[in-house]
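residues and backbone:
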Amino acid sequence: MKHKNLEKNCDENEKLSDKNGDSEPCENKKAQTRLASKTEKQKNKKAKISKYKAIKWVLIVTVLTFVLAFLFSFVAEITVSKAGLIFSLVLLFILILINYFFDAIGVAATACEEQPFHSMASRKEKGAKMAIMLVKNADKVSSMCCDVIGDICGIISGACSISIVLMLSTKINNPQTTFWLTIAFSALVSAITVGGKALIKIFAIRKSKNIILLTAKFLSIFSRKK
C-alpha cells in the first residue's frame, strides 16, 4: 500500500514538473519503489517457505523417532526377555556405544567449519561434497544423531538396565538388596552414559573435521554418482 502511494505521489509530482517546464522524470523513483516492493514480496515468500520446512522437519523427526523407538524397544524387549544375563549386559554396552558414536557425529557437525572441505572438493577428494552437505545441514544432522538416535539409545539402555536388575533380583531373592541394587545399577549406567558423552563431546569438537570426513566418506558409498 505504501509503495502504491509513493508511485501515486510520484505521478503527481511528475505532472507538476511538466507544467512548470522541468524535464526531470520520476522514473528512477518508480523503479526503486517497484524493486523495494519486489524484494519485500521475495522476503515474505522465503519466510513462509522456511517456516513450512521447519514444521515439516519437526513432523518428520517426531514420526521417525516414534518408529525407531518402537522398533528398537520391540527388539530389545524380545532379546533381553529371552537372552541370558551376559547377553543383556553386552546389549546394554552396545547401546551405550551407539549413543557415543552418534553423539560424536552430531557435535562434530555443529563444531566443524565448511571452508576446508571446499578446497578438498576442488581437488575432487572423496567425501568432500558430502562433508559440505553435512556441515551445511548441521542443525538437522545434530538433531537426528543427538536427539533422535542418541536419546532413543539412552531410553532403551535404561529399560535394558532395569531388565538386568530384575534378572539379578530373581537370583538374589532379597527385597532390600534388590532395592539398593536397582538404584546402584541405574546410577552406574547413567554415570557411564553421561560421563562418556561429555568426553566424546570434547573429542568431537577437537577432531570435528576428521569425524565429519570419515562419516562423509562412509555415506558417499551409498550416494548415487551424478
